[in-house]
Design a protein that fits this description.
Helices cover about 35% and strands about 30% of the residues. It has helices at about 5-20, 80-85, 135-140, 160-170, 170-190; strands spanning about 25-30, 40-45, 50-60, 65, 70-75, 95-100, 110, 120-125, 130-135, 140, 145-150. The longest helix has 20 residues, at about 5-20.
């Protein structure tokens, strides 16, 4: 299997592991033509109504991210990927996820027995995934270099951060703002 395909599969496995822990359904697409590698879906009951939510993930995997300093890593997108992200309008929230793996493929996954009398091995995935909701594109993407900056200790792909995303997606403020922006957009289209 080509290295790029291994990286893609490993990245999806990481998202699946976190999503399964948080109760999200994960969908994969046979093609990545729209800049979407996978979609997470979850429905909750709010005020007696079932409200479905989804978010789209563009996955990248690298063994050599740009380390700005001890606080940040950056990932530079290809111009066509960047433009697809910038031009998204009112669809599911879009998340860029960059998985950083060791240079040596055999180190991506390890079995480890922590204690001598332990009856099982611990599976260890050697990676760090960074994920950022790209809602305010102008604030999160550097237009000149097509770069996304992730904050270490804040933007990791984690159970806590996926739960925080869920809170945002079901918040009245987020949904009212999205509905307002959609109304304004379509009103402008009618005037054109």
């Amino acid at each position: 299997m080509h290295l790029d395909k291994r990286k893609e599969d490993f990245s999806i496995a990481m998202v699946r592991a976190v999503a399964a822990t948080c109760g999200w359904t994960v969908g994969e697409w046979s093609q990545d033509m729209d800049g979407i590698d996978t979609t997470l879906f979850k429905a909750v009951e709010v005020a007696g109504k079932i409200i479905p939510k989804s978010c789209d993930f563009q996955l990248k995997c690298t063994e050599s991210p740009t380390t700005d300093n001890s606080e940040f890593i950056s990932f530079t997108l290809k111009p066509d990927h960047y433009n697809r992200i910038k031009n998204r309008c009112f669809s599911s929230p879009f998340i860029l996820c960059v998985v950083v793996v060791p240079n040596e493929i055999k180190q991506w996954y390890q079995l480890k027995k922590a204690e001598k009398d332990q009856l099982h091995f611990d599976s260890i995935l050697k990676h760090c995934g960074y994920a950022k909701l790209l809602a305010d594109h102008d604030n999160m993407l550097d237009d000149a270099s097509k770069t996304v900056r992730f904050t270490k200790g804040k933007d990791e792909l984690s159970i806590e951060n996926l739960n925080n995303l869920e809170t945002v997606l079901w918040s009245p403020g987020y949904n009212l703002e999205k509905a307002r922006a959609e109304r304004e957009f379509w009103a402008q289209q009618q005037q054109s």
